[in-house]
């Protein structure tokens, strides 16, 4: 009888311990749920930016977006001049044909910087933009098959790039050079027969965030070859730097030179011929 009682007690103790372990496991799982939810909330974003959650939704909706180092975004670790932050974007051809490329800044008051459609150009672009505060700078690429791929870099800044007037706005000289275009076509060293087209458009590129100065910016540029065929299309927005300079890459020099046409948001036309 004593042996039976001892066995029953031992069994009861084992069941109690197992039940306690189960409860501890359940409590631990419940404790981890917020962490797992937070991880899912960022959906793989390497910068874990809360602002990006809504930005991503607005740009791609419910479509899948993956992060890939083959979308290369290069910029300084710290913006010495927050009104002229150099950024270059290059998409590895191994990802496939690029339909469009959108550059966004999480912590700018105006988050979209530009949208680029390479058409007959290589999927790369370089430019300068205004940075209000330290932020992830992203390139989000839609491939020809409709899928989305993203890359980025983090640029720190002392701030104030979007809410300060440019030099030509301060001294009033912008009106004397408005819409003037200069550019050059040259070979890319060590890149075979490929060429780079660098274009500057004189324009104050006002963000509309300075008191008394409305938004005034170049909003569209089109690059065309000597036969008038469109090779690249650019939609620019307020954060692009004053008197913007854009660099475009081509697998071969454009036939017959190149023309640049475009507009600003006030309807002023931009037109020039590069040879």
Write up this protein.
With 275 residues, the protein is an alpha+beta fold. It folds into 2 domains: 1-42; 50-274, Immunoglobulin-like (Sandwich). Helices cover 22% and strands 37% of the residues. Strands 1, 3, 5, 6, 8, 9, 12, 13, 15 and 16 form a 10-stranded mixed β-sheet that branches. Strands 2-4-7-14-11-10 form a 6-stranded antiparallel β-sheet, with no helix packed on it.
Give the helix/strand layout.
Layout: H1 2-42, H2 50-60, E1 65-67, E2 71-74, E3 78-79, E4 85-91, E5 98-105, E6 112-117, E7 124-129, E8 135-143, E9 148-157, H3 167-171, H4 174-177, E10 181-187, E11 195-201, E12 218-225, E13 230-236, E14 245-250, E15 258-264, E16 269-274
Parallel strand pairs: 1-9, 3-9
Antiparallel strand pairs: 2-4, 4-7, 5-6, 5-8, 6-13, 7-14, 8-9, 10-11, 11-14, 12-13, 12-15, 15-16
């Amino acid at each position: 009888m004593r042996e039976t009682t001892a066995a029953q007690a031992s069994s009861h103790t084992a069941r109690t311990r197992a039940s306690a372990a189960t409860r501890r496991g359940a409590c631990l799982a419940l404790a981890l749920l917020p962490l797992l939810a937070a991880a899912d909330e960022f959906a793989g974003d390497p910068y874990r930016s809360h602002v990006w959650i809504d930005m991503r939704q607005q740009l791609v909706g419910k479509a899948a977006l993956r992060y890939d180092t083959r979308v290369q975004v290069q910029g300084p670790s710290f913006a010495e001049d927050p009104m002229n932050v150099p950024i270059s974007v290059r998409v590895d051809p191994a990802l496939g044909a690029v339909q469009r490329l959108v550059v966004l800044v999480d912590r700018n008051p105006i988050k979209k910087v530009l949208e680029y459609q390479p058409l007959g150009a290589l999927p790369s672009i370089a430019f300068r933009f205004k940075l209000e505060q330290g932020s992830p700078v992203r390139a989000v690429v839609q491939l020809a098959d409709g899928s989305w791929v993203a890359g980025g870099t983090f640029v720190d800044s002392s701030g104030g790039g979007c809410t300060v007037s440019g030099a030509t706005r301060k001294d009033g000289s912008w009106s004397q050079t408005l819409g003037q275009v200069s550019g050059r076509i040259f070979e890319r060293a060590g890149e075979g027969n490929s060429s780079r087209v660098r274009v500057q458009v004189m324009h104050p590129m006002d963000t509309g965030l300075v008191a008394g100065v409305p938004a005034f910016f170049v909003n569209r540029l089109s690059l065309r070859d000597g036969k008038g065929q469109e090779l690249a299309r650019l939609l620019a927005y307020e954060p692009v730097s004053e008197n913007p300079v854009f660099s475009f890459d081509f697998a071969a020099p454009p036939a017959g030179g190149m023309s640049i046409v475009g507009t600003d948001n006030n309807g002023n036309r931009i037109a020039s011929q590069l040879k």
